[in-house]
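User: Please fill in residues for this 197-position structure.
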């Protein structure tokens, strides 16, 4: 891909220590993207301080905290979004869910207080998403036994619902694997970064 892209990289691992495979994968994507000339803004969710949303009224009519408003502006400026996260209890970590609830409020997505009112549709259309998800189990088992539920939810119920598409996924199973496997994963993700996809 020869076009320079503006990429928003969301590092969704809840551990701020940055010692996990997901952190290394995010770094590999970043390095590949920047080496190819893409503009990348990185947000570490573990560094953001924001409250949980506790009511529909807060979600629909409340003001986002300043740290969330900043990420909303970065999202509007981006062509492509990358979310790196581990699979916890078969789904996204609670931090990622709480962040997405804050980020994708109706007033931000559609410019109205309710997803049911669609005067202009989503302001987020035209942006693509890449999910990079690590897990302890083999990927075929996750797909066949669990139906890749978190991927389906993010693809259709979260990002697709607010107009972000296409949503592609890179799933990395048996995340505690050998050094050789780890090196292969990092190389693969760096290549995605270079292509800006």
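Assistant: Residues filled in for all 197 positions:
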């Amino acid at each position: 891909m020869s076009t320079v892209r503006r990429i928003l990289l969301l590092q969704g691992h809840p551990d701020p220590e940055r010692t996990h495979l997901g952190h290394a994968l995010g770094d590999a994507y970043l390095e590949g993207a920047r080496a190819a000339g893409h503009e990348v803004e990185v947000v570490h969710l573990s560094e953001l301080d924001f409250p949980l949303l506790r009511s529909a009224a807060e979600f629909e009519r409340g003001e986002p905290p300043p740290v969330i408003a900043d990420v909303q502006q970065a999202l509007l400026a981006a062509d492509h979004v990358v979310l790196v996260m581990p699979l916890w209890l078969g789904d996204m970590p609670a931090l990622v869910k709480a962040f997405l609830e804050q980020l994708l409020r109706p007033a931000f997505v559609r410019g109205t207080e309710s997803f049911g009112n669609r005067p202009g549709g989503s302001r987020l259309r035209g942006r693509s998403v890449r999910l990079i998800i690590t897990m302890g189990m083999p990927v075929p088992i996750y797909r066949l036994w669990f139906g890749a539920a978190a991927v389906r939810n993010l693809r259709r119920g979260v990002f697709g619902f607010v107009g972000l598409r296409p949503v592609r996924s890179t799933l990395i199973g048996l995340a505690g694997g050998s050094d050789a496997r780890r090196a292969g994963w990092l190389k693969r993700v760096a290549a995605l970064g270079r292509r800006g996809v």
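For context: The mean pLDDT is 94.
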